[in-house]
Amino acid sequence: MADLTDLAVIREVLTRHGFSFSKALGQNFLVNPAVCPEMADRCGADKETGVLEIGPGLGVLTKELALRAKKVVSVELDKRLLPVLDETMQAFDNVTVVNADILEADLSALFAEHFAGLRVVVCANLPYYITSPVLLRLLESDLPIAAITVMVQKEVAQRLCAKPGTKTAGALTVMADYYAEARRLFDVSKGSFYPAPQVDSAVIQLMMRPAPAVAVDSSERFFRLVKAAFSQKRKTLVNAVSSTLHLSKQTVLDALQGSGLPEAVRAEALTTAQFGELYHALQARGALIA
Fold first, then answer.
1. Which of 113, 127, 126 lies closest to 71 in space, CA to CA?
2. Whole-model pTM?
3. Does the N terminus or the C terminus of the chain have fewer Cβ atoms within 10 A?
């Protein structure tokens, strides 16, 4: 099988198929030969596992996953890459390429069709422009996913893997922590890609929790509170939440006091558990988070 990290091979294959890179789709193909084997090793794939991959590109990571997993389903949006993947993945009978938008695909049907009876993990080099929506869709999907191992922009990795209650934390930190335990596995320089992006990357892993970190009656309303709290980071939490959610300042102040939090607290100072306490305190005071 041709070396899909060799620039000469890449250019020959792409030229033969008349393929040109799309900036709109955030296409940057991995050419560092060490990265994909390590990702595949650390994602938890084995012969009892099904792997969902998003944006396979030329199939560099797909190949490594296919060597380790029982089944690999790669979801690719760009139709122009389908004949390329037919060629590069022809040696593997355990790879299925699905032409779909991961943000719109029926994931429940996909899992039922391809992963019945298998432990499932996600492993992907995510396009930067859809990182957050894809991760949130997977986290909120209620699908039987054991772990999500993805390459993302380094800055996003820092935010996702920050500890809630620290200055680096943001709304995405708390939302990820609600569903999973996040850890940063290793960094990947921009020179590892062709064409090279403007920023460095990092591979992170989200180990899914058996149950959410806090018990709330609506994750959707809980996340509205979290997003509101971080929406105006220069303001105190009471000002950000009251103005964004159209609640009275006194109600929010009372809820903070009921949660044992100071009135001048800012969103980044709260842990996920404290956000849960604040949510319940607002509910107890009749505050509607709509």
1. 113
2. 0.93
3. C
* Residue 58: count of CB within 10 angstroms of its CB: 26
Range of the domain at 95: 7-208
Closest CA to 174 of 266, 261, 272: 272
pLDDT band at 75 (very low <50, low <70, confident <90, very high): very high
- 83 falls in which pLDDT band (50, 70, 90)? very high
Nearest alpha carbon to residue 172 among 161, 181, 186, 183: 161
Domain CATH code at residue 263: 1.10.8.100
Among 140, 175, 208, the domain-final residue is 208
Summarised one tens digit per residue, pLDDT across range 135-146 is 999 999 999 999
Residue 101 contacts residue 55 (beta carbons within 8 Å): no
Query: Can you tell me the distance from the alpha carbon of 11 to that of 34, in angstroms, rounded to the nearest whole number?
Result: 20
| Boundary-marking domain end, from 161, 179, 208 | 208
Cβ-proximal residues to 200 (8 Å cutoff; 6+ apart), any chain: 153, 154, 187, 188, 189, 190
* 158-174 pLDDT tens trace: 999 999 999 999 999 99
